[in-house]
Design a protein that fits this description.
Keywords: Coiled coil, Hydrolase, Membrane, Protease, Transmembrane, Transmembrane helix. It contains seven helices and ten strands. The chain is an alpha+beta fold. It has three domains: 12-71, no CATH class; 75-179, Tetrahydropterin Synthase, Chain A; 235-269, no CATH class.
């Protein structure tokens, strides 16, 4: 064997192994937990949209193709903005959106919106919905009873926009609504006065009910006395008096001295034995 030929054979072999290693390195990709990949075929039509995205784990990819990795878990986006109420006052709104890409539409999202879809799509959609909804209400409604209704309306309008943009909206939370200080003070004063008025009306109503109860009770007693008086004839009274006198005469501590008072006078028992 000619030893002088070994370097000539070994060099191409080493070069081939290096090229193979580079090929293998460029042809593999690992997609992490909570992520998915969009395949871009350089010589095969660009972004793949008619197949599901590449899932978690290890994948072989031709070295001339590319994979764009997206987080597909739920994400949080907070927005603080100033918008106008129905009467033109500036209102501060602090809202949070929970969102994630529509998994099976990830290829279309990448092709049409790009990796910066949060700033291109989600943020403008939230701002548009908040402006639209808050503009329907007065500061008084925003401050008090309409908070839940406003949150639901913002979520519905934002979802309507994002459903067409390959984004899944899970929830909108309105964390705070800030009014101008003078308006807030005026609303609080008005609410306090309304509460005091309601308390005063309650006390009046309670007093009226108590007076009505006492009137009914007095009328009942008066009616009972009239019925009793109408039933007490002179003869009944005389019989009751005689019966009471007889019972009293049986007492161990009493001796009877009977006297009469007038024609129909009742007997009286006086003195001791």
């Amino acid at each position: 064997m000619d030893v002088n030929r070994l370097p000539k054979i070994g060099l191409p072999l080493i070069l081939g192994i290096v090229i193979l290693l580079i090929f293998l390195f460029k042809s593999t990709i690992t997609i992490g937990s909570g992520e998915a990949g969009v395949l871009y075929k350089t010589f095969g039509g660009g972004v793949v949209t008619d197949e599901p995205p590449m899932g978690e784990g290890f994948h072989f990819v031709l070295p001339w193709n590319k994979v764009f990795i997206y987080e597909v878990r739920q994400q949080e986006l907070s927005e603080k903005m100033l918008v106008l109420s129905s009467n033109g006052l500036e209102i501060g709104v602090d809202a949070t959106a929970w969102h994630q890409p529509a998994y099976n539409k990830l290829g279309s999202l990448h092709r049409e919106k790009g990796e910066n879809y949060i700033d291109r799509v989600i943020r403008p959609a939230i701002r548009s919905a908040v402006r639209s909804v808050v503009g329907r209400y007065t500061p008084e409604q925003l401050y008090s009873s309409k908070r839940d209704a406003i949150q639901n309306e913002i979520q519905e309008e934002t979802k309507k926009i994002l459903d067409q943009q390959y984004v899944q909206l899970n929830e909108i939370l309105v964390k705070d609504i800030t009014l101008p200080k003078t308006i807030k003070t005026a609303i609080e004063t008005k609410l306090r006065q309304e509460q005091e008025s309601l308390e005063y009306e309650f006390r009046l109503e309670k007093a009226e009910k108590e007076a009505e109860r006492q009137r009914i009770e007095a009328e009942g007693k008066a009616n009972a006395n009239r019925i009793l008086n109408a039933s007490l004839t002179d003869q009944i009274i005389r019989e009751k008096g005689i019966q009471a006198t007889l019972e009293l005469s049986k007492s161990q501590n009493a001796k009877v001295i009977v006297i009469g008072s007038g024609k129909d006078g009742m007997p009286l028992i006086l003195g001791n034995q």
